[in-house]
Design a protein that fits this description.
By secondary structure, this protein is mainly α. The chain is built from 6 helices and no strands. The protein is elongated and about 130 Å long.
């Protein structure tokens, strides 16, 4: 094969090339774009990409949150009937009232007893949360409703017993101190 000089080849084919004139101001626009790339403060920033990514992430989290709620159904007494909602409200307020009375006995002698009672109440609260799941699974079974009410009654009874014991101890200490003086 014969070696052809590239310059001769282009010289022979120059009439066959498609040649067009560049538009007016092309060189200046090109140089401005080139300078803009060198200087990052003048770079045009496109915000639609980060916004679309953020929107996608938000949608994914929203869908995930909905599935998590549906995957772990819970119900409380209020979801059974309006009467049970009133019952739950009554028991909740009664338990909270008794807890406030118990926390009022903040003496060093009763500190251990109060902390033990609060631990037992947390155990009963955990049991109640399990009952709420059972209620949702069972479709408002009366036995589960009864167990939930019984759980509230246990809490109130526990709190009242402890408050009574603390008051008895205080009374006994007062009597002992009065006779020793």
């Amino acid at each position: 094969m014969k070696k052809v000089n590239l310059e001769e080849l282009f010289e022979n084919l120059k009439d066959e090339f498609e040649v067009h004139n560049t538009p007016f101001g092309h060189k200046e626009r090109f140089l401005k774009k080139l300078e803009a790339r060198k200087n990052p403060s003048q770079v045009y920033r496109s915000w639609w990409k980060p916004l679309s990514i953020a929107a996608s992430v938000a949608i994914i989290f929203g869908i995930g949150f909905i599935f998590l709620q549906n995957g772990n159904p819970t119900a409380d007494l209020g979801s059974v009937s309006p009467e049970m909602a009133q019952t739950q409200s009554f028991f909740t307020s009664e338990v909270n009232k008794e807890i406030e009375i118990l926390k009022g006995y903040g003496s060093p002698e009763t500190k251990i007893l109060v902390s033990d009672v609060l631990k037992q109440l947390n155990v009963l609260e955990t049991e109640y949360n399990g009952l709420k799941k059972d209620l949702a699974d069972s479709g408002n079974d009366k036995r589960v409703v009864y167990a939930m009410i019984n759980n509230f009654q246990k809490r109130i009874d526990l709190l009242k017993q402890v408050i009574t014991k603390i008051e008895e101890v205080k009374t006994l200490k007062l009597r002992t101190n009065e006779t020793n003086i």
